[in-house]
User: Fold this.
Amino acid sequence: MGKVTGFLEIDRQDRKYAPASDRIRHYREFVIPLSEETTRDQAARCMNCGIPYCHNGCPVNNQIPDWNDLAYKGEWQEALRNLHSTNNFPEVTGRVCPAPCEESCTLNLESTPVTIKTIECAIVDRGWKEGWIKPEPAKQQTGKKVAVVGSGPSGLAAAQQLARAGHDVHVYEKHAKAGGLLRYGIPDFKMEKHYIDRRVAQMTAEGVTFHYNAHVGVTLPIEELTAQYDAVILAGGAEKPRDLPIPGRDLSGVHFAMDFLPQQNRRVSHEAPTTNDPILASGKHVVVIGGGDTGSDCIGTSIRQGALSVTQIEIMPRPPEKENKLLVWPDWPLKLRTSSSQQEGAERDFAVNTVEFTGHGVVKKLRCVRVDPKFQPIAGTEFDLKADLVLLAMGFVSPVHEGMIDSLGVKKDARGNVAADTLQYKSSVEKVFACGDMRRGQSLVVWAIREGRQCAHSVDKFLMGKTLLPR
Assistant:
């Protein structure tokens, strides 16, 4: 490393947030970037640790020490090239990834990991600002056609890799714009959508053709794609939400999170709504059921819409404040994490199960009970929560089977995902591949990018007998 004593001399310093009182008034990003000098200082903290476990912590296997060193030396363009060699969309992961790489950092043994995510974001943002990121069309075409169903992070990564290998790639998206959950799930205050538009423009210039409002298996038979294309990639995500089938579930005001969040994203982008039944938190007592990232996004959106109160409940017990480093490092630890949205004014409660929604036509209360570590109700702990709007954010169980998957007849795994291994990504149907959440179940954006890239490697090898695409 360029500064082998950097971790001894320089304290960890990360990006800060704009004050909550300011940021809840708009839907723009509110993370304040570090200066170039501070970013280089933080990169200098990357130590010559011998075995860089951050490589293993990062699903796309970013060469983190390498581009940290390049950033420290001010070689930003080379750092960008290195970063792009493993990650198609670092401006996305630099904003919404939970950074498992930082948990795996050797300095995390002292709870002061290198600010890897911040440095990654600084490198790619500088690349866009300087005009270094340009379309990279293939030098020659293969004559092979590939269809990608779904334009989320896995579908986009696979499409870009295959287009650069010279294939004629067509992406089919059921919505009006590309991005999947990046566009319709993640709120704009976490990631503004012009980052997606910029990549779509780059990919279009590289030869990728996007087909919008094309719902494969519903408005467009999957059989047309398997007949027309040399390979088909299923990258439609895991969109079937986990429901809560308890008394009162049919009351008005109880909604899935993914019926709520896309509506606000469409309002921000001035996209036409897909329903005349708006779901709004304005002037309401909101209860979010589920303690993950989707629940957190519901909190931040509800607060910005003007909710009177927001309460988040979770059936899991409250995690410890800190992990036992010597027991769990370098793996991802279970510990209490507080998101920026939760800091904006939500009440959080743990080990709570909802047993009934009550109200006359419209939800007014939740009947809850506290549970033990085995999720069994504890007698005498029943209580009520006032609620005018309930958002179910308990995760996703599988891809939607009706339509494309059932029509194809692909084999499914025990959890209902499209069955395919991580070596070839082949489904049980000839020339049909699967990647991302559709194959692995709900997961992180960075895992989706990894699977899209690896699936592209497998498809290129299937079509050409060999491949130069990285895995």
Notes: Residues 159 and 169 are 6 Å apart (CA to CA). The chain has 20 helices and 17 strands. The radius of gyration is 23 Å. Residues 445-464 form the longest helix (20 residues).
